[in-house]
Amino acid sequence: MPLITAIKIQKRAAARFSVYIDESYSFSLSDLELSASSLRVGQALSPAEVTQWQEQAHEDKAYNLVLRYLSYRERSRYEVLEYLRRKDYAPEIAAGIVDRLQAAGLQDDARFAAAWVADRRALRPRSRRQLEQELLKKGVDRPMIAEAVAVLGGDEQAAVLDELVSRKRRQSQYQDNAKLMAYLGRQGFGYAEIKRALERPSD
Fold it and tell me: Which of 78, 36, 84 minimizes the C-alpha distance to 64?
C-alpha cells in the first residue's frame, strides 16, 4: 500500500505542508488541515485514500486562494467564479467553494452590492443607472441591486449631477451644451434631470 514517507513544511508557504507518498510529492495541506487530518509519517493509505486526499487538497488550495482574493474587498458570486475559472478550476469545484463561502457568511451578493454602492458614494459618485449597470456586470440579481441603490435619494443624485456638470464645464470640449448633455446621458442620467441641472445657476 502507498506509504507516507515524509511531511515537509513548504519553503514559500510557511503555513502549508507537503505530503510525500513513497518518496514522491503527492499533495499539500495547511497547518490546520494537517493537524485535523491525523496524517503521519509511516502511515499507510489505500490508493483510493490518496486520491481522496489529493482532491481535497486541490479544493482546499482553491478555497485559500479565494480567501486571499476576498481579503481586499467584497466580491460578487460571479467574480469569485470567474476568478477560479481563470485559475483553471473546474466549474463544479468553483461552485462548491462559493457555496461553502456563503454558508460561512464570507460571500453574500446583497452585502457586496451595498458595499459597492457605499464605496461609489464616498469616492466616485455616479448616477443610479450607472451603478445598476455596474452591478449587473458583476452578476448581481436585479432585486438585490434595487435594494442596494434604494439609499440614493433624489437630492443626492442632483448633487452628483451638479458636481459633474461643474467639473466638465471647466473642460473646453464641454462648453457646448449639446456635447455636455450627450456625455451626461452616457453616464446614466435622464434628459429631464440633465436639463434641470444645466438650467441651475452655477457657482
Answer: 84
- CA gap 145, 132 in Å, rounded: 6
Where is average pLDDT lowest: 17-21, 103-107, 120-124? Answer: 120-124
The dihedral of CA 182, 183, 187, 191: what is its sign? Answer: negative
- Classify residue 141 as exposed, middle or buried by CB count within 10 Å of its CB (0-12, 13-18, 19+): middle
Tens digits of per-residue pLDDT, 59-73?
Answer: 988 998 999 999 999
Backbone phi, psi, residue 17, to 5°: -125, 135
Q: What is the dihedral of CA 153, 155, 156, 157, to 10 degrees?
A: 90
Cα(197)–Cα(203) distance, rounded to whole angstroms? 12
Burial tier of 145 (Cβ tally within 10 Å: 0-12, 13-18, 19+): buried
User: What is the CA 7 to chain-centroid distance, rounded?
Assistant: 34
C-alpha cell at 63: 478555497
* Closest-CA residue to 79 (of 71, 88, 70): 70
pTM: 0.76
List the grid coordinates of 77: 458570486
Spatial contact of 145 and 176, defined as CB atoms under 8 Å apart? no
Can you tell me the distance from the alpha carbon of 122 to that of 115, in angstroms, rounded to the nearest whole number?
Answer: 11
